[in-house]
Amino acid sequence: MLDRIPLGARFLAPLLVLVGLVVAYPLGYSLWLSLTSRTITQRETEFVGLDQYTGLLSDGEFGTAMRNTLVFVVLAVTIELVLGLLLALALQRQERVRNLTRSFLLTPMFVTPIAVGLMFRFLLNQQLGAIPQLLDVFGITIDFFGSSLALITIVFIDVWQWTPFMVLLLLAGLESLPRQPFEAARIDGASTWMTFRRVTLPLLRPVIGIAVLLRALDAFKIFEYVFATTRGGPGDATITAQFEIYRTGFQFFRLAEAAAMAFVLVGIVLLLSIALYRLLMRQEPATR
Amino acid sequence: MMTSARRLLIALACLLVAFPYAWVVLSSFKTGDDLNEPSKVVFEPTLDNWSEIADGGVFQSAWTSLLVAAVTVGISLVVGTLGAYAISRFRTGGAATRFGILLSQLMPPAVLVVPLFLVAFDLNLRDTVIAVIASHLTFVLPVVTWFLIGFFDAVPKAYEEQAMVDGHGRFGAFRRVVLPQVRGGLVAAGIFAFVLSWNDLFYALILAGGNTTTLPVQIASYNTFRGVELGAMSAAILVSVVPVLIVSFFVQRRLVRGLSGGGLKS
Q1: Interface of B with A in 202-261 (CB under 8 A)
Q2: What is the mean pLDDT of each run of 10 residues along chain B (266 residues)?
Q3: Within 13 Å and on the Cβ side, how many CA atoms surround A200?
């Protein structure tokens, strides 16, 4: 009886059942919740249709959270890509203590994000932080968690932790490139910059695509750094989508509203990842 | 890039990575007064912070984190290996399955946490490791599967065909010939998955509490501005970070193929 089912289907079945149980079912449950008025305290729920969603349209704080998240993702991923590429190029030609340097530079991506957030919260703290004290010697005073800089500070916390991820993928990409185009460029007498722009970058494009896509999708989930440093403040300068959903659902107990917010976030992430995928994975090499 | 500029860049990067580590290590051995002077590098070291966290239940939390991560990884490896092999070799479900795995990997935790919280409440599983394990499976399982597809893709089909000619069944060929080929990938996926579960704050913060506090939640609970807490927090961070950094050295080389789903080799 069991033999009639193809081996592939039998192998896949446990995975499908488990993913259905822990991902698909909660997803459906959540979608239904977002159409009700459910809060933690009130068990009798009422079907309200799209009211939660239309309510979000006029919710200024949610709008701010989405905008902050977008700014954060774009800035963090861009800086990480540029720094990651520079470091990968430098590491590629390094000769001495190669493996140790690489391994060490990759360590930040393994540290629990809440610890990274807290380390920087205290390192950058106005009164007892090491970095403001150091800057004070040079007569520089920066309020890292003031309303104008807080989001940027959080971007740089992310850069500290996740540039290594870019380095890891880009370095592997660089080392798997064919040698001939570089030989040809050298024989043609191309400058380092020209070789980089006309040979390295176009060849590396698919790898850059994968790296940016993976990093951007992960960056949308930002929560720990905000939780550790500013809790959304000052004002609502650093409220991000995931943090706002956490607050709405588990501090203000408005579960249905939190579920609706989450679906808006999923929709935006999905649209952006499709757009990004199209943009980055186009086959023709950049010509200019 | 010029050699000197290259060296400077690498040295600067190493310094920036090392600085927070050095600060945490120093802070974990400082007294309350010394903590108020962050630039003080020479001081009388104390073990007070370490005995404080030992009494404060950090090792209990570490044990909970270890238990959650071990069970999550165990389940994910068994189920993920079978699924990844089916997807890689038999194209079961076609492109839709592959895409589905990728999609569940990018699902923001915020969308799953509300229903998981309610289900855990209804089943009386709140504040148990079961709720946390179930929530960790939501991201670990797709990652492990995605990771292993890349490794299975790299095993030449001829190996299995030869094994079947030699009289092994399909399952025998899988177990005796294919699995040993991806052993390195299995170890890397297991360690990577372990780190993901061990490091999670979001789900554990919402679903667990009291006796089932995980290590990241415990670390977050030291988040006050009192100096003594800063020392204890630093010690707790080291308990969490040191083991992970040690194991990370063994997986880094294999991460590339896994993360890119086989799109990239190293």
Answers
A1: 202, 206, 215-216, 219-220, 222-223, 225, 227, 230, 233, 237, 240-241, 244-245, 248-249, 252, 255-256, 259-260
A2: 83 94 90 77 82 84 94 96 89 75 81 89 85 94 89 84 80 84 88 92 87 88 67 91 87 73 57
A3: 19
What residues of chain A, 1 to 60, have a C-beta less than 8 Å from chain B?
Answer: 6-9, 11-12, 14-16, 18-19, 22-23, 25-27, 29-30, 33
Tokens describing residue B230: 């800063």
Chain A residues inside the 8 Å CB shell of B79 = 14-15, 18
Classify residue B210 as exposed, middle or buried by CB count within 10 Å of its CB (0-12, 13-18, 19+).
exposed
Minimal C-alpha gap between A288 and chain B (Å): 22
> Is the Cβ of B28 closer than 8 Å to some Cβ of chain A?
no
Is the Cβ–Cβ distance between A78 and A212 less than 8 Å?
Answer: no
pLDDT per position as a tens digit, A22-69: 888 998 988 888 888 777 777 677 788 788 888 888 888 899 999 999
Looking at the partner chain, which of B14, B92, B263 has a beta carbon nearest the beta carbon of A8?
Answer: B92
Residues 6+ apart with CB under 8 A from B148: B80, B81, B84, B85, B88, B182, B185, B186, B189, B258
* B114:A15 CB<8 A: no
Residue A191 region, left (φ>0) first, then alpha (ψ -120 to 50), else beta? beta
CA B130/CA B123 separation, integer angstroms:
11
Residue pointed to by tokens 């706002």 = A244
A36 phi/psi in degrees, rounded to 5: -120, -175
Pairwise CB contact (< 8 Å): A111 & B215: no
Angle between helices B48-55 and B58-85 (to 10 degrees): 70
Q: Is B33 buried (19+), middle (13-18) or exposed (0-12) by CB count in 10 A? A: exposed
ipTM of the complex: 0.89
Q: Nearest CA to CA, how far is A148 from chain B (Å)? A: 23
DSSP secondary structure string for all residues of A232-285: T-STTTT--HHHHHHHHHHTS--HHHHHHHHHHHHHHHHHHHHHHHHHHH-SSP
Residues 140-169 (B) with a CB less than 8 A from some CB of A: 141-142, 145
C-alpha span between A132 and A118 (Å, rounded): 16
Between residues 166 and 185 of chain A, which touch chain B (CB distance below 8 Å)?
168-169, 172-173, 175-176
Strand, coil or helix: B21 = helix
